[in-house]
Model the fold of this input.
Amino acid sequence: MSTSRPFNIDTDLADLHRIWQEIGWMEDSDAHRRGIKAYLDVSTTTAQDVNGAMDIGVSRCDATVHVQHTTLPACLIAGVYAGLAGRQGGHATRMTAEHVADGAAQGAAIATLGIFDQGFYDRVGFGCGPYVRRMTIEPASLNVPRLQRSPVRLTVDDAQAMHDCRLRRRRLHGAIDIPHVAYTEMECCESPGWGLGFKNSAGALTHCMWITHESKIENGPWSVRWMAWNTRDELMELLGVVKSFADQVSGVRIADPPGLQMQDLVDRPFAWMRRTGSGDNQVKPTAVAYWQHRMCDVPRCIGAISMPAADLRFNVQIDDPIEQFLASDVPWRGCGGDWIISLGDTCSAEPGCDDALPTMRASINAFTRWWMGVRSAEALSMTDALEAPAELLAGLTAHYRLPAPETDWDY
Ligand SMILES: CC(C)(COP(=O)(O)OP(=O)(O)OC[C@H]1O[C@@H](n2cnc3c(N)ncnc32)[C@H](O)[C@@H]1OP(=O)(O)O)[C@@H](O)C(=O)NCCC(=O)NCCS
Done:
């Protein structure tokens, strides 16, 4: 098995820039160089050489995920990238597996990433989250109050204040926090646009958003890259800013805020869909599942849940495909094996098998999806690698209920 090595910013940076330009992640600009430097400074990156120079890299950083009412440490695979000479040697997959193993060894309960397509990361145990819904909205159609005050402009130089605001935002089940301001700084650098927000009487930023224009400045479409808010009034005020663009911009793309449905705030959405035709500003909802998680620590993940309505115990035999990508001297070997799961007020997972209990068989991918509430046990038994006696599937489906997880942070 070939081995990767730590990234060296002094000797590898030019090669990393070359790779990122070859894959379309980087423009030859100071802003992009600044963003990438910030990202690399807080990430752990490994490199694999091809023909004597770095041609494959994987970067990760620490993060947290909110699971019900608990916060779990997570390992965020922030970038997997191969230059044009570095493809299909198995390096990207192996290095991803190595980062998950390192993250797990350092205490991550789960690993998470954004995907370029479904299937690639499934091979190391990741399973898809639910759909993330977005809608391009004609700003004039927003049913929100007219602005009563002007927002403040924010730039990349306000990254710290914006980042702090993001870390204080309203969080629901599944919310991810990336602690490093570098990630907000990088997003501002790579997505040219504007930050807009509001301050309280003490001068502290309370709610804000980053809007990008993809070079379609005059009439849009623009996109709300992210929003950070806590109260209904704050959300309405941010959407009031979006509405205030209506005389200039015909479409603003916006994700459903966590737990909400943007269509509730749009006047006559179907009429706007008909009127906006098929152009750039077409009022068009989309739903795509583009982030994936995998458990790294089964007892810690199960122990984060409280499910008083589900008084259930069962065995689960977990298959974890990651092991085949790990060198024999890597101590963390994945989550495969036999576990006894107890659900109730407090939940637990212990190694072992109790012959008196019903038994589920699941890939770690599907088991992670069930645990996070992406889909019910019954649904996963139809479309994913999860099987169990009908009575157990029905019991879990009826009593293990979580809202769909929403990361509310793209990575
Ligand atoms: C994604 C990327 C790193 C993969 O690099 P790579 O060198 O092909 O990766 P590996 O050699 O480790 O894996 C290739 C294998 O994955 C398989 N694969 C690729 N996409 C897959 C998918 N969606 N589902 C299942 N298998 C997939 C290939 O068929 C190949 O299988 P094989 O080895 O059996 O032939 C590379 O294409 C890249 O840099 N793309 C641009 C940047 C990007 O999108 N990065 C990912 C961000 S999430």
Residues 296-399 form a domain with the Nonspecific Lipid-transfer Protein; Chain A fold (CATH 3.30.1050.10).
